[in-house]
Amino acid sequence: MSQSYRQIFGDGLWNNNVAMGQMLALCPLLAVTTTATNGLGMGLASMVVLLLTNVIISSIRGIITPQVRIPVLIVLIATVVTLVDMAINALLHPLYKVLGLFIALIVTNCAILGRAESFAAKNGVRLAAADALAMGLGFTWVLIVIGGMREILGSGTLFSHASLLLGDSFAWLEITVIPNYSGILLSVLPPGAFIALGLLIAFKRVVDRRLKSGNTEQLVVPTL
Amino acid sequence: MATVASPSYRQRVSYHAGLLAGICCLVSMLLLIGNMESEEIISDHLEADKQFLLGQVLPAALYDNAPLREIEVLDNINGFTKPVEIAPAMLAGQLSAVVLQSSVGGWGDNIQFIIAADKQGNITGVRVISHKETPGLADGIELDKSDWITRFNGHSLQSLSPSQWAVKKDGGEFDQFTGATITPRAMVNGVHRALEVMAEWQQQQLASQPPREQEQQQPPAAAPATAAPTAVEHQQGVNP
Amino acid sequence: MTQDTSSAPLTMVAPHTHDRSSVERIMLQVCLALTPATLFGLWQFGWPAAMLWLLTCVSAVATEVLCLWLRRKPLHHSVDLSALLTGWLLALSLPPWAPWWIGVGGSFFAIAVGKHLYGGIGQNIFNPAMLARIALLVSFPVQMTTWPLAGQHTPDFITSLGIIFQGMPMPDGTTGATILGELKTAYSGDATVTSITDAHFFWLDAGLGFTAGSLGETSALLILAGGIWLLALRIISWHIPVAMLLSLLLVSAFFNAVDPGRYAGPMVHLLSGGTLLGAFFIATDYVTSPSSNSGRLWFGACCGVLVFAIRSWGGFPEGVGFAVLFMNALTPLLDRYCKPRAYGRNVAGKALKVRNTTRRIK
Fold it and tell me: Are residues B48 and B66 in the same domain?
């Protein structure tokens, strides 16, 4: 059952990526990625929640019985999300004003329950933590890429308001890509999220196909 | 799960119930602690947000009280889609300005805004708090997008005639946006109406000071028309 | 019915016959049907409109060639004129003096995203021209709602180049809102619909085309003539246009009768905006409309109701594009429920009972 860390990270970052391989967590993905900064914030918040739930669930997996596992998992996930929600509201208030609604929605994020059920409940704490990190990082980079695409096309900037999220020392991240740009509004509106996600998934398929034709023994079928 | 042998007691319903109950107790405690720890900080933040918004429309030199703690709610005021929240700004015990917050109907949905005017009725600031107008077309009412909203500053019921309180397309003083007339029109009407409500409320405040209870003793019919709803509310509260 | 050879056999049933028409022939005839209205629009709005129209058509064909090349398909597909028609329809629905990148970007979106990403001709769910128009409208609301007024002196060639290619501001007083835009604006002011239509809507002007609007929205009469010509050639069937116009007429007449101060009458709805262009040229697209006659009736009727609903209660003044796209999305469903009966079988697909007129043979 145990998997190598290399495999876990390969799955999380690319092969079985939450958004592009498992096609989970699309609701928060589509909703918040109007800027790269929002994507980064949502990705990090999801990763923290995922890490906490995976570790907790993995460490108590011995006492959970299959009959009650779903309510137990949901109660635990909801608690962690609520605590993270409170913590962000108290400690990172500017970010909370942007992400407020969506943090509470992490609780409905299928990826969290999916990882808890399919990985954390079957593996040791260390592996579960590694899986959470891998999946969280994979989700975060997809959010940042989609947010960045939409932000550049929609408003001509990249990582705007990043200093609100990361502190003033990260103000250098805020780039104006195209000055005096009125923007393609479609890309910051909901349809833009669907188009950007579609393009990204298509890109992954193309790359996978290229890789597959290059060396055939590394054929990976995405599974949950 | 193959590694852990499942003892027989785990098959019992009582184990399942106990497990769920135990976990629920545990997480309730966690949530309680989390809430206690963060409640005060969060309410401070919310207070600071409101204070920041107030600072946007009302210069700090104009008041030394906490207007946000003295909010009065007026229901059923014409021209607004939500109850009007109105509060006095006091300087050294004297009324120095009035703050008003409410919503008007825009193109998309309600436009929520806050406005303040000094005691002569000159606008010190207007800000849109939330709106759902078309992005790129009508969101110039946000300060982030354009300085349109600052053009109300300094205007009053005296500085412009009622017909000048309109967008240029309707023969008034204020610019509309290219391709969007409804949003600016709604905002101009809302600001104009807010000034009227504020002026009436201010007079009523000054008249009823210091003992504000006197006004409530009057029969509602004798109260000024716009004050009627509040007066009626108070009446209902007093007379069982 | 030859264009959608890949999708039609799923729902159309035997017997099939062929009338020797081809994709090229049909597309050419539709383009011809659009020509009078286009020429009238070009005459009315002058050089800028002509440049924009040419640019949009050329870039549509260029994008088609590029996409076919990228997809390693034989290039002779691009001469089937469907890309030209898409570009042409798009150009007809744009504000005539829009900057060049509106036309080029719109054409690219229509052909690359609206058509080839779905798999090319016959595979697209949505009408590419309308998809591009809506994408442009949502993305660039300012440029897409700036209409030159009709019946004014059109700019000369050099000024036109400036307007289209350099984004030169249009001279003051030469632009205005369409009648539908005026109506939308009226709801928030004190004006009633009646006063707006009295001041801005003259049905003779609207019918002949002397109003603000896109090339394909102005001359109701010439669009109608082109549509009737297509009907006569049997390139389109009467079901969708008639159902759409009739339902729009009935719904708007009903609401207008109930509250004339709030809802515009049927003449306004039928003669203004893209109603006629949509009914005859866009909703009737073979690929994106149902293939059975009952499905077409439903499709058209729903389009009409949606047009009225979006114009009256929606966020945008014009609703034809949205209505058609919405019904495009429902087309597979309509195809499923409005399947024509197969020969010798009932609607559910079971064999019909044969009346026993001869003796059973043992």
Answer: no
Into how many domains does chain B fold?
2
Q: Could you give the strand order of the β-sheet that contains B110-118, starting from the edge strand earlier in sequence?
A: B72-74, B84-91, B94-105, B110-118, B123-130
Q: Do A184 and C113 touch (CB under 8 A)?
A: no
Alpha-carbon distance C243 to C294, whole Å?
10
DSSP conformation class of A66? G
pLDDT number for residue B223: 38
Q: Residue A157 CB: number of other CB atoms within 10 A?
A: 21
Q: What is the DSSP string of C135-198?
A: HHHHH-HHHHT-EEPSSSPPP-HHHHHHHHHS-PPPPTTSEE--HHHHHHHHTTSS--HHHHHH
Interface contact A186-C135, CB threshold 8 A? yes
Interface of A with B in 139-198 (CB under 8 A): 182-183, 185, 188-189
Peptide bond into B184 cis (omega under 30): no
Give the H/E segment covering residue C89: helix C82-92
pLDDT in tens, C250-301: 999 999 898 888 888 888 888 888 889 999 999 998 889 998 889 999 999 9
Burial class (CB in 10 A: 0-12, 13-18, 19+), B41: middle
SS (H, E, C) C120-135: CCCCCCCCHHHHHHHH
CATH fold group of domain C21-337: Ammonium transporter fold (1.10.3430)
The residues that bridge with B177 in the sheet, in sequence order, are: B180
